[in-house]
């Protein structure tokens, strides 16, 4: 049976100290124990207009001791690191470690969560706009969601946050927003939609399911702490649901920075190193491959995302021996080195033949089919593993949330995917079951909001 917030059972009132019951007189305009009564600021009221101006009203009306509980960016978390305050003495907060208070910058030319070093946990949420959500409503939604994301990533509670204590440890939290094809239609801005931000062509390997595909709005939320992530998800979706309904939620994970050096290539659930040939953030090759520099002016400094949910057929993959797995991929499983090399980042020699005259790296090997010679035409992979547990038969329901960022989907992603769909040996053990595409707007400066280049 669920307890009430006061710890009493439903339908029962918690015992009150003498003289504090409902009949006890209070000075006019005060709340319990004579404190100034704080006006209730409903979330619905914030969503229906005046959300941003209400912030100032809230601060002005708050009692002094309540205002002190709304920390400056990272302040509450900093108190935990330095040991100020102690568990059990009113804070109810565990002592943090440096990773818990770490933050990623929110403002900038690009949204965080793309070139950012991948966090341990990621959640992708696809939403469909409600029928009456027009351009003006989308604008209000994005202003509110931007404010939520800014606060939470800085270690501050979101506006009207009902559990502000859970915002104290940002743990490198990032919130990234994307616009699906339907958002442009709803906003009356179809002529501003990038041509390549459209449903992908059908590939013969696809077995797409509606519950993992499509979407008008994307929330990509990543952090190194699962509780921080859960809180950020709930706060942002609560503010979005007056404008949109959730279409799908996909949760993923990687090895944490405390487990493996973040600079090393991560492994997927099939045991393969995933992302060896990724362009390196901060380099000219990365900038050319990922950030939009031509096309719609509003998207300059942004990018595009293809999110593919790829189920791993683990039962049959487990039956393949190491030699067969390495032949399929074209790399050694232990080191990630191409079959023609010694180290992970050695260039693959696709012309090298074995003693019988056949290519050492098969014509159908995954790395050959995915190979791109022009660095600017590569994609940037930022994948997460997923694991939904076991089926009734005890089989693993797991795979990869393949997140691909590129400046142009049609020019970069689709040619690679066509080659893979035609003849990749790995297709025998992987099945795409979800697919969605989004335009990722550029970042914003202080005082701005995500999407303003399109909607304002």
UniProtKB/TrEMBL annotation:
InterPro entries: Dimeric_a/b-barrel, Dyp_perox_C, Dyp_perox_N, Dyp_peroxidase, TAT_signal
Protein name as annotated: Dye decolorizing peroxidase
Cofactor(s) required, per the database record: heme b
Organism: Streptosporangium becharense
Domain spans labelled Dyp-type peroxidase C-terminal: 265-444
Enzyme class: oxidoreductase
Oxidoreductase recorded as keyword: yes
Bias-annotated ranges (Polar residues): 256-269
Entry-linked NCBIfam families: Dyp_perox_fam
Enzyme Commission number, as recorded: 1.11.1.19
Cited SUPFAM superfamilies: Dimeric alpha+beta barrel
Boundaries of every Dyp-type peroxidase N-terminal domain copy: 111-254
Family: Belongs to the DyP-type peroxidase family.
Keywords: Heme, Iron, Metal-binding, Oxidoreductase, Peroxidase, Signal
Keyword NADP: no
PROSITE patterns in alphabetical order: DYP_PEROXIDASE, TAT
GO CC annotations, alphabetized: cytosol
MF term (GO), any: heme binding
Region (Disordered): 1-42, 68-97, 251-271
